[in-house]
């Protein structure tokens, strides 16, 4: 399989997952904001922080209000990870691999981008936001299901699984981080609304119900972090995503370096004592390291399969 | 109401299926009888079935408009064009003869240049040739073949004679549509195939693969063959990916390939670098190697010419083959056949006047209103003057162009191209067409059974290009004795 083609399907999966996760995050924050009393000030800028593009936001906006933040996350073309930018990039990637990816997948991605482009204003304003973003999430899921069900599970598909799960681990860990920074420091004296925020974060990962079934305890920060970080059966948890990264890597040739790194990252995530990390206020530092681990896996993937420069 | 062949009138043109009002040619009789058995409604249903099949099969071509490129469904007419096998045998022999001579000529041009020394062709032809590549001098590709894949355009004149209108030896397109047209026709008219002996066309991808394998520098191994495309924005991208798929070859872009320190070509795969033996390149000479040609090119591979010259990779078509695309050189093909093969040409050229020749130029300038004038090195019908359809002013402008650069122009009589029944909104009507057979040459030479028939879908139009509203038809070589 050509390196270029592998790289394109890998990024196709990452971009679609990124669009879906960003849409999920806004939906849940949107719902939380509707529940909050007027006296509580929500920081929409926190969502921008999750994506790691604060500097881009600051370069274009003065006011950190809801409208600007949502516009930045959903529609702005100078935000490389906005929903619209991600879907556009996904479309370009599948367009150039049409000989490899099932033709229905091209149609789904193409229609998804056109739908987003034509209805983008609905994502920014409050009234139709929920509906618009939910549809984006559903269409992304359609693509994921279509590829799982219609595409040969060969090397190309392994690169798709790899990209999707690495992006998912990345995004979930970012969400834990933001939740942790904003709210865990106050554990000694929890505000009555912390529960709502953690519920929101769980909801953004479709994890609320699963958490309820599996954790069976009152929603609290420590349990939510543990669930999102270490719960292997839950598909959007970091530990689960990294396991699937590992499975995809195991099937690819010359996988030594990325495989070693992902096993290290998994050990890191699964071995953490969440209670202690929070008690000692080390969670942010821990997530930082986890993010670096994920970054290193990506770099190793790029170096191993996408950047083959020298003659053998 | 069904088709009444008595009301279909091709006059004054030569018709491929109908000899004269109401009397189909013998070779087309089964088809015309069958068409007559369908009523209008049924004919429309077949047409819709064909349109549907084309969409479903994703047969498309790319057109450019306002900076965007759009994939369009391939325009297709359901009524096949029929050629008797006994006629085709002669055409096939003529094409093999022609391509053999053309390849001997290209090899001569880049090596001894005997044909000029022997005075068969004037040396000035080469001095002003735009597609002559100095970089190819002294190279001996395997089997002496340079143009491995050729698409020669054939037209039939009013008296039924087939002529070669031009040879395309650089990167000819269209063969994938020939194959897809047959697929669609089989779906639409399966009944006719039962009763007629129509020669199959779908051997082509296998023959193409075998031909490419025959120029591999490592013939003992399974050759690694790739199709090099300029990318998705190229108008023939559909064909590039189609042929790669049918051959089981990788479809690569320039950036996927690298020439190593050992002067071999490698492709970047997830396994690491893999050696490439043969490249079917669909990128023009000028862009294939920034080291030797256009230094700005991002489509090519640095060092490719070096690898090819050392014999470490096969290139089809060989760089420099386009020298024979020149329409001035075209005029000398009959002389070439005589010179290299000591044979008379089987398929004639269209009579051609060379503006560089004083006597010819005098005639051309005096008869512009009767002639078609073409630039020597354009393709796709660009920069032409169709004398009878041009204004006085246009003719005067062209006369000036010819005087300024006589080497760059040739002139031919305006042919009255043949027609064939084509399903239009008004029913079956005669429309002009041409034919592009494809010739493969490696250790052996293969000619497609028929080729791509392109048809002008507008009444009276001679323009068959798809980008300008032209369509295409399936082409049947029918064995009447079988």
TrEMBL record, chain A:
Signal peptide: none annotated. Residues 1-306 form the DUF403 domain. The lineage of its organism: Bacteria, Pseudomonadati, Pseudomonadota, Gammaproteobacteria, Chromatiales. InterPro entries: ATP-dep_Glu-Cys_Ligase-2 (IPR051680), DUF403 (IPR007296). It holds the Pfam family Alpha-E. This is Protein containing domains DUF403.
From TrEMBL, chain B:
InterPro entries: ATP-dep_Glu-Cys_Ligase-2, CP_ATPgrasp_2, UCP005522. It comes from the Bacteria. Pfam families: CP_ATPgrasp_2. Residues 80-456 form the Circularly permuted ATP-grasp type domain. PANTHER family: BLR5612 PROTEIN, SLL1039 PROTEIN. This is Protein containing domains DUF404, DUF407. It comes from Thioalkalivibrio nitratireducens (strain DSM 14787 / UNIQEM 213 / ALEN2).
């Amino acid at each position: 399989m050509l390196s270029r083609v592998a790289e394109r399907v890998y990024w196709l999966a990452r971009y679609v997952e990124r669009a879906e996760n960003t849409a999920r995050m806004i939906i849940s924050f949107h719902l939380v904001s509707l529940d909050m009393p007027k006296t509580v000030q929500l920081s929409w800028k926190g969502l921008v922080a999750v994506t790691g593009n604060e500097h881009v936001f600051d370069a274009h906006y003065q006011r950190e209000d809801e409208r600007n933040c949502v516009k930045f996350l959903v529609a702005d073309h100078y935000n490389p990870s906005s929903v619209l930018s991600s879907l556009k990039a996904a479309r370009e990637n599948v367009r150039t691999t049409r000989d490899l990816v099932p033709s229905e997948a091209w149609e789904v991605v193409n229609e998804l981008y056109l739908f987003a482009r034509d209805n983008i204003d609905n994502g920014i304003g409050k009234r139709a936001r929920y509906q618009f973003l939910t549809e984006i999430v559903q269409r992304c899921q359609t693509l994921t299901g279509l590829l799982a069900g219609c595409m040969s599970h060969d090397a190309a598909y392994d690169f798709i699984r790899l990209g999707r799960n690495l992006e998912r681990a990345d995004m979930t860990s970012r969400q834990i981080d933001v939740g942790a920074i904003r709210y865990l420091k106050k554990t000694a004296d929890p505000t009555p609304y912390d529960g709502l925020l953690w519920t929101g974060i769980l909801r953004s990962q479709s994890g609320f119900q699963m958490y309820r079934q599996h954790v069976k305890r009152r929603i609290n920060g420590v349990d939510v972090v543990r669930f999102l970080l270490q719960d292997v059966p839950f598909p959007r948890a970091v530990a689960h995503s990294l396991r699937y990264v590992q499975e995809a890597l195991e099937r690819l040739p010359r996988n030594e370096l990325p495989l070693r790194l992902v096993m290290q990252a998994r050990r890191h995530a699964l071995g953490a004592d969440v209670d202690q990390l929070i008690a000692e206020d080390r969670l942010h530092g821990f997530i930082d390291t986890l993010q670096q681990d994920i970054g290193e896996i990506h770099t190793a993937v790029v170096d191993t399969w996408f950047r083959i420069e020298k003659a053998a | 109401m069904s088709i009444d062949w008595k009301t279909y009138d091709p006059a004054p043109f030569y018709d491929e299926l109908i000899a004269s009002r109401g009397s189909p040619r013998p070779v087309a009789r089964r088809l015309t009888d069958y068409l007559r058995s369908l009523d209008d409604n049924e004919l429309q249903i077949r047409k819709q079935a064909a349109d549907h099949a084309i969409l479903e099969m994703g047969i498309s071509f790319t057109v450019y408009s306002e900076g965007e490129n759009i994939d369009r469904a391939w325009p297709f007419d359901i009524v096949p064009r029929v050629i008797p096998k006994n006629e085709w045998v002669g055409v096939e022999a003529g094409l093999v003869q022609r391509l053999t001579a053309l390849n001997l000529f290209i090899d001569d041009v880049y090596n001894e240049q005997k044909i000029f020394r022997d005075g068969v062709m004037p040396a000035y032809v080469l001095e002003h040739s735009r597609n002559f590549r100095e970089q190819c001098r002294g190279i001996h590709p395997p089997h002496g073949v340079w143009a491995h894949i050729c698409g020669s355009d054939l037209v039939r004149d009013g008296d039924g004679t087939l002529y070669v209108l031009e040879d395309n030896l650089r990167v000819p397109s269209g063969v994938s549509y020939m194959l897809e047209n047959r697929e669609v026709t089989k779906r639409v008219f399966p009944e006719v195939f039962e009763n007629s002996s129509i020669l199959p066309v779908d051997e082509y991808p296998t023959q193409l693969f075998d031909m490419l394998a025959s120029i591999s520098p490592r013939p003992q191994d399974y050759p690694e063959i790739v199709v090099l495309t300029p990318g998705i924005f190229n108008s023939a991208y559909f064909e590039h990916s189609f042929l790669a798929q049918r051959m089981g070859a990788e479809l690569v872009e320039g950036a996927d390939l690298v020439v190593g320190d050992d002067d071999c070509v490698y492709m970047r795969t997830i396994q690491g670098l893999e050696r490439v033996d043969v490249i079917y390149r669909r990128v023009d000479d000028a862009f294939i190697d920034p080291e030797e040609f256009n230094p700005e090119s991002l489509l090519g591979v640095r060092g490719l010419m070096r690898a090819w010259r050392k014999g470490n990779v096969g290139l089809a078509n060989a760089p420099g083959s386009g020298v024979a695309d020149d329409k001035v050189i075209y005029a000398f093909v009959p002389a070439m056949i005589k010179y290299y093969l000591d044979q008379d040409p089987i398929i004639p050229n269209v009579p051609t006047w060379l503006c560089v020749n004083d006597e010819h130029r005098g005639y051309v300038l005096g008869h512009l209103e009767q002639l078609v004038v073409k630039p020597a090195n354009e393709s796709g019908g660009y920069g032409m003057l169709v004398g009878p359809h041009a204004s006085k002013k246009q003719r005067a402008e062209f006369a000036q162009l010819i005087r300024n650069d006589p080497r760059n122009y040739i002139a031919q009589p305006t042919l009255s191209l043949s027609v064939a029944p084509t399903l239009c909104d008004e029913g079956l009507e005669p429309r002009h067409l041409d034919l592009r057979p494809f010739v493969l040459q490696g250790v052996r030479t293969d000619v497609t059974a028929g080729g791509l028939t392109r048809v002008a879908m507008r009444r009276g139009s001679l323009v068959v290009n798809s980008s300008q509203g032209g369509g295409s038809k399936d082409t049947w070589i029918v064995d009447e004795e079988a």
